UniProtKB/TrEMBL annotation:
Sequence segments annotated as region (Disordered): 283-304
SMART domains: AAA (SM00382)
Upper taxonomic lineage: Eukaryota, Sar, Stramenopiles, Ochrophyta, Bolidophyceae
Superkingdom in the source lineage: Eukaryota
Organism: Tetraparma gracilis
Membrane topology term: Multi-pass membrane protein
Location in the cell: Membrane
Keywords associated with the record: ATP-binding, Membrane, Nucleotide-binding, Transmembrane, Transmembrane helix, Transport
Domain ABC transporter: 11-255
Name of the featured protein: ABC transporter domain-containing protein
Amino acid sequence: MLLLPLCAADLAFRNISLAYGPKSILSGLSGSAKEGRLLAIMGPSGSGKTSLLNSLAGRVPEGKKKAPSLLSGERYLAGSPLLPDEALSAAYVKQEDLFFPHQTVQETLSFRVRLSHPELGPKAHADLVGGLLESMSLEGCKDTIVGDARTRGVSGGERKRLSIACQLLSAPGIVLLDEPTSGLDSYQAERLVKAVKRLAEEENKIVACVIHQPSQVVFDMFDDLCLVSGGRLMYFGPAAEAKAHLQSTGYARSETNQVGSAEFLLDAVSVDSEDKEGSLKRIDGFASSVPPPPPLEEASEADGASQKRLALRPRASIFRQFRLLLARSWREATRNKGTLAIKVVQQVMTALIYGSIYQLKDTQSSIFDRFGLLSLVSIGTVNLGMAGTIRAFPKERKLIIAEQESALFSTIPYFMAKAISEIPLSAGLSCLFGAIVYPLVGLDPAPAKFISFLQSTTLISIASQSAGMAISSMSKSADVALALFPPIVVLQIIFDGKNINPANAPRVLSFLPKMSIVRWGWEALSINEFTGLKFSSKERRGRVLDTGESALDQFSIRGPISRATKPLAKILGACWGLSIACLMGTSSRYARMSPP
Ligand SMILES: Nc1ncnc2c1ncn2[C@@H]1O[C@H](COP(=O)(O)OP(=O)(O)OP(=O)(O)O)[C@@H](O)[C@H]1O
């Protein structure tokens, strides 16, 4: 076997080794991916294919404290060495496709095109999107939403091709693909690899592709092959010569050598459970037959230009990022009809339940009914706002982290766009709830008070969503965020101003009443309702409260309403700030590649 000669236009790698603590994953792999040729990284499951691709891209996860990743080796791009912690400027298509489900294929591409090429005008953007749709055979589904597990959208193959098209925008020189055909039927897999091959051949790109069990037709489309087993190199060279090479080392399948190369090669480098010793010996033989890699050519001036071509695109202005992100967030929120319908039903049903139970009058007993109802409204609004966000936001956060790796936008415009796009929906749902519950239960019918009620419930809802975002942003996973949600709501209810006298609570918790959205929400709603109300003193039993102000005095609540809405606004601002800070700090961390 001959290792492919390394020339200056390659992405070359030398002696790549990787271990997680004591567990060795890759051992001294060398090879190169060449411009205009399609490289397959193939091997049995768990042989280290993805780890090798991550190593080339400079995206090996740091690992855990107990088993940190130890990565060594060298990478050369166009003849020049890459820095130990340099992320390769490549289109990296991971196994998992992450998309906003309610955007169409064209909108998804257009969003990326406009962010990654801010220097171009609308006509050039449209041409670029059109070109990508054509080259990835996506024209037929350009107006279909991408979809996800819950919403029907494009097919698996179209989704994967969209993933490649998106990645091609940010760094067009090198394309790395991790098992792009997994989960696709043979026709879709063939179409996809054909599209990728066109990229390599017609656009002269460097393309490396991890592939697990390709059909013979798919295998035949690859020019070069990097065959691995147990983290060791079994073969590196032209794909068409691999079978003959393994046969030349003495390996032959007993059932004849008629099987296709792909099946033959995988069989040859896999450990046979019935003959473990024999197969390990055979694999050792393949590993020792790999010659040392040839020397690298010097980088030339032309290759310097090729390196420049591979550099990351500049970002769009903050204002442009915000505008595009706002439009996408709005589309995502309003097109998610299922979630919207659930929220509408929740609001209507809650309002009807309150309306069928509470009938407020001007009697003494109705004073406490009012306090009770307004407390429930505050608790319910906080509950719905926080729970909805905690359920939805962690998934979106994953997507955002992936998009930020392509340097599409920064955190602040993203966050502001998301927060602002949700305000009209929160206001709409609060108004729907208020419009039903307010007249049904008999709250003070003064128009100014009704409007103030709607404003207060909207503010409580937005503040709760911001708290939900802060909890999700701080939590490592959706499960952690969901686990934190109940105790946080319970604490807010305990410290809502009427369930415990703050003087009797542990001193270390004295800050909690100030942070309870439930408390400030209830106080705002109560000040709004009780101020100026008069109550009858007919049912004389105990102390009579003949005015709303004296009722508020029972709980040491005093107007004006801004005494409660200001703290709510402060909590909202603090949660936004906290979320932004956490999101900024949650970029993926990758291992450095030390010299071999
Ligand atoms: N963070 C990690 N800590 C410890 N071991 C890991 C870690 N990541 C991967 N591994 C191990 O490294 C080995 C190679 O994994 P890798 O995903 O690179 O293999 P693969 O050939 O791509 O497998 P597959 O085809 O099944 O996706 C596996 O045994 C895997 O369990």
